[in-house]
Description:
Layout: H1 2-9, H2 15-20, H3 26-36, H4 42-60, H5 69-99, H6 108-118, H7 120-123, H8 125-136, H9 152-184, H10 188-212
Helix pairs in contact: 3-9, 4-5, 5-6, 5-10, 6-9, 8-9, 9-10
Amino acid sequence: xxxxxxxxxxxxxxxxxxxxxxxxxxxxxxxxxxxxxxxxxxxxxxxxxxxxxxxxxxxxxxxxxxxxxxxxxxxxxxxxxxxxxxxxxxxxxxxxxxxxxxxxxxxxxxxxxxxxxxxxxxxxxxxxxxxxxxxxxxxxxxxxxxxxxxxxxxxxxxxxxxxxxxxxxxxxxxxxxxxxxxxxxxxxxxxxxxxxxxxxxxxxxxxxxxxxx
Length: 213
């Protein structure tokens, strides 16, 4: 039993395996990243994460109503890529801070690193976004976007790409939970609570003062 444990501890992964095996062996890869403080290409990933988040905000806010597709993509790539990491960094700080309430001791850098690599699946949503833009252009960012009734081909393209994007995003969230359990040595349930506490804190701070006025 001890020999198997030592073998697991000595397991190494190449740079390529970090990105390929995170899909099939997420816990082993994330543990390796944490224990070796692996950070290769980390800032490239952060830029891509910022772009993904910026494009998501553009869709959520229906920016296509007032901006062209070129303007949306330009602002998402430039501003999202340059500044998108800030909210990510801030959230990592909050998770580290609130984690202490649950007797965790992981620092901000550990979470920041873990969350960054956990977003690898979500970054691939850019592929399906590109597919949507090829077929629907800037309409996907507009509030009046609708598929024509009876157009099954376009409907399949849109909903299948949206479904794959959702699945990738959910998998990244699952990786964040696994990563939190590794750096904090928490159970999965406790890790989920640790990730939710900053969100609860934000809701309380945002809404309570408004109700008191």
